[in-house]
Amino acid sequence: MSTDEAEVLIIGAGASGAVAAKHLAEAGVGVVCLEQGGQVSPEEFYGDKPEWEVMSQRRWHPNPNVRGLENDYPVDTSESDVNPLMYNAVGGSTVLYAAHWQRFMPSDFRVRSLDGVADDWPFACEDLEPFYDIMDVEMGVSGLVGDPAYPPMTPPPLPPMPIGPIGKLAARGMNELGWHWWPAPQAIPSRPYRGRGQCVRRGSCMQGCADQAKGSTDLTHWPDAIRHGARLITGARVREITTSPSGLADGAIWIDREGREHRQKARNVLVCANGVGTPRLLLNSVSKAHPNGLANASGLVGRNLMMHPYAAVVGYFDEPLESWMGPAGQAIQSMQFYETDETRGFVRGAKWNAMPTGGPLGMRSIHGGGPLESAWGENFHRGTERRLGRSFEWGIIAEDLPSEDNRVVLDPELRDGDGVAAPKIIYRNSENTQKLIAFHLERQKEAMAASGARAISLTTLMRDCGWHLMGTCRMGTNPDRSVVDQWCRAHDVPNLYILDGSVFVTSSGFNPTATICAIALRAVAHMLETRGATEAV
Amino acid sequence: MLSDAERKTLGAIADVLIPAYGEMPSFSQSGAHNAHTDRVLELRPELLDALKAALALGGGGGDAGEIAEMLNRDQPDAIGLIGLVASSAYYLDADIRTKLGYPGQLQRPPVEDEEYDYEDLLQPVIARGPIFREPPK
Ligand SMILES: Cc1cc2nc3c(=O)[nH]c(=O)nc-3n(C[C@H](O)[C@H](O)[C@H](O)COP(=O)(O)OP(=O)(O)OC[C@H]3O[C@@H](n4cnc5c(N)ncnc54)[C@H](O)[C@@H]3O)c2cc1C
Ligand code: SF4
């Protein structure tokens, strides 16, 4: 294996890593990327096979502890209300994401100024806008311009996906109540786009898109990055980032799938390992100059974990809705209760998404214990009859406020398959979040009633819902209160950058990946602008 | 793979969990205890040992309904696992899917006139105007 020095070493080939690799490589920068997983090929997905739901319960489950694949690392969740979810391969968690492609609101960047909690971001929404626009084009976003929940913005490149029977039913209920809704923006092409096929609405997006339509970064960014010379090394688990005697990052030690150790030297290191993998790696990178882990002089690496606790109401209807049809993510969204209204007894809010409910097997649980007849016997059939094709879900992306107590630490005992210390999550829902969820569930019940639901069921908190991993290396201007600056550069280590969801100051009530990518792109643009003037590239 | 005796026990207990209902056949009437069960276990080989253990707990003969109740009371994980394998196998069956009106996850590419066939529904939302907060500059 070569030990040549890379101009830029990227760790993690997911959303942020792919965006950085493409743009740096296109600008002529020498990029090496180390990714612990492999390249997933479409034949490995089951969305186009009858066994799709069987495989979603383990092989394609979003919880790495359930999958337990070689490319996964275990996570101790014994002290967490929520399990973190992710996928570890080229494309990262976008291989399994639902591709809701959401921009943050202007107010999301000014939470302290507006609501007196958390902190303001070191930049404003307008600063991200050009990068959101570029990302829309690169991902192939479908959507409808003109949503009154947002300031005016550039239209996405593709028309919206049809909202289908469930979207229309949900919309009628919202209209009845005079509440906001809008066709959902998605990184899913409604028409053939840049070599990718049109979405065929199979609905298996969260177990991987067998039709290769969904905008996951293994498809949207890696081919371009590689064409422009980026070197992607798969099966490469980084154990630690190394530093020079002066304390600068100078490369990484990684382990291949045969257990052999390698060293990759680099002039700059970009960490893109997600909100759990990044703090884990930094905390594992201890040296004389960085005794508490790399970039951790503030002690904030791993702190302020936010995961968007998810709650939902499912409504059951008399009419057939084909509610197994995709996209699996969302047909319409609502920001009616997004902004703070203090009369509700909490601050901040949530986006709602109206989603399909899948096939007949659904989320059937392995646990028995309740009265036998409640889940089985005739009720087994009645449950399927009630749900299959005749239901939809209003889900809540609840804004999670940062708390230093919610954190990623190194587990004292748990190790991954290569013997590297695994992360432990310590995470509890705050009182604000609990009140927020309770309020939103009540409103969603009203929305379901207005849509004519004949019955509903409630999920007050889904444990397997930590699909958004944010905040564990927050950005800011004060090095005592943050890990990176607004350009994602570590305050303590000027040639180390963190580009993933770890840098979020607040979580917003939106799915984060459009913002993760826009921030990564903005940071890369700044690196390129200042090229030569600093240690960067 | 399951032995004949284990398969028989699975069929008996799973018929309590998935009985005949209206148009729907019971678990064994559908034949799901054969090829579909094998397919589920082929795809989820890690379930096999635990399933065999669960079936051994209920394999002494006797009334399947009582065995299922006993397992549910004393060994909830065992009945949960039998139920998971049984329902997974049952819903793999093409006839069962047809009876449910479920075609599977099909290709249904959007056609152009579907893309924005809800303009009228959206009018009140547009008419109410902006709902976002402008933060201080
Ligand atoms: C089921 C599911 C549904 C989701 N739906 C949505 C949605 O609809 N909309 C949305 O906005 N977001 C969604 N998300 C979240 C979205 O996928 C993530 O926000 C996004 O992928 C995060 O990007 P990232 O670059 O931070 O990390 P990731 O995409 O997670 O990539 C990190 C990469 O780093 C690699 N890595 C980690 N540690 C190491 C190491 N030590 N050595 C080498 N490699 C390493 C990992 O293998 C991985 O490939 C969803 C996620 C899941 C799991
Ligand atoms: S619904 Fe569209 S994006 Fe989702 S899996 Fe199917 S083809 Fe892919």
List its traits:
heterodimer; A: 537 residues; alpha/beta; FAD/NAD(P)-binding domain; seven-stranded mixed β-sheet; six-stranded antiparallel β-sheet; globular; B: 137 residues; mainly alpha; 7 helices; elongated; binds flavin-adenine dinucleotide; binds iron/sulfur cluster
Characterise this structure.
The complex is a heterodimer of chains A (537) and B (137). Chain A is an alpha/beta fold and 537 residues long. Chain A is built from 13 helices and 16 strands. In chain A, the strands form three sheets. In chain A, strands 1, 2, 5, 6, 7, 8 and 16 form a seven-stranded mixed β-sheet that branches. In chain A, strands 4-10-11-12-9-15 form a six-stranded antiparallel β-sheet, with helices on one face. In chain A, a hairpin with a 5-residue loop joins strand 6 and strand 7. In chain A, helix 1 runs parallel beside helix 13, helix 5 (125-139) crosses helix 13 and helix 6 (164-177) crosses helix 12. The two termini of chain A are 23 Å apart. Chain B has seven helices and no strands. Chain B is an all-alpha fold and 137 residues long. Chains A and B meet through helix 2, helix 6, strand 4 and helix 11 of A and helix 2, helix 4, helix 5, helix 6 and helix 7 of B. Bound molecules: flavin-adenine dinucleotide and iron/sulfur cluster.
